[in-house]
């Protein structure tokens, strides 16, 4: 995964974005009370300068796989007797982990009284005798109170990995003492973060995955952004290692968050939609939970026909991918090809628009200027890493694909140019004597302004001069969302201002191609036109329809779409 350094001395090392505090916000769809142990400082919200580095750990546990009895919790400690670990053994060891040597797994867990936890487990395996069928599997994990997206569970990742490797080596007689020592450390507030430069983003922080997320998903990142903004149920499917896909769940959750500053035009009740819930790793044991109806809030008035609450999750269980009623969008990272396959639950392919493709190429060229050689290499990974939690989700792009990403693009990834679009381009080329039309130029300039917010690379990069590329990339997506929301609000306000005195202000808002361009969308894409309509209905309670038109010259009319 990406390990680019982060800068900005004025920030807390746990607040990875300077453009917004969204990474440190508590989940907007739920509330929490302070359940700290007596005498332990509160850690709600972002970590303060004097706050302990560790999260509030509610439980520490050891899970083993026994060939005779299956998954078992071999050891556990909880802060209170009421903390229930039922089912944690299955979440800590997703199916397929036997294929890798080590891994990190993020998951969620709900207590009997609705308490929400984030779990993090470190998996390791080693050789064993015939009585254990030649392999020993262990997973050491924690539960922390859910605050923000992850409850800062990632702080303990390095320590858990070390303990898992130690216990997988076969030391049952000492495992109790080892785990008791770790339990004392996490309860005593001992700093368990790895040492690093002041401005360097911690090694295990999931925000480091944002660069790889953009690289792996290609131009489809913008369609995933739209699905998450509509609070769809998005399911990532792929084999182990699980760590990378779990971090992608975190990344999409953060990128698709909406700032409270941009909600002035939203209807009451939509505050629960500002951040999509993240479930992280799920398995067959979670199917009953996924089937439990949970209505999505928003600008709807009828409660009976509300769509289910959205979420983002990942799984290694192929059986979940066959149950189409459980998800809205499925992303297959095991698909053949350069990019993942994205489909709706009905089986329809989800493809990027032509504007998405141009925008992604522009962004990718800018990011390439910042890349270090070790982040993207064509060399085969070393054996010890090839099957660990740092193994790539997809094959590394070839040098030709990096320099010419369009070589990896086909009609399975990007919507083809429509006949009307081709006719329009040809007509404008002829009418302007070969010059680019003003509409396309304005579109590119708008996309270029977004990329321009990423500072140029330092001529001599170092941990002290790095500009926190991950932070700026997160800010890129936040600015894109903010621009869309604010422009849509302006269009709705303009429509309300033009309505007559007797109008209720809840009629259909008509927008044209220039409005679609200002929204940052592709006027030629039916999917983009549907997106703006669904978003406006869900958040603002207004119907929006894009009206077409035509360009006429010398008596010849060319439809816009």
Automatic annotation (TrEMBL):
TM segment ranges: none
Cellular component terms (Gene Ontology): lipid droplet
Residue ranges of the region described as Disordered: 1-53, 371-406
DUF4484 domain sequence ranges: 414-558
Ranges annotated as biased composition (Low complexity): 1-11
Bias type Polar residues, positions: 15-53
InterPro entries: DUF4484, LCHN/Anr2, Lipid_Metab_Assoc_Protein
Protein name from the UniProt record: DUF4484 domain-containing protein
Organism: Dothidotthia symphoricarpi CBS 119687
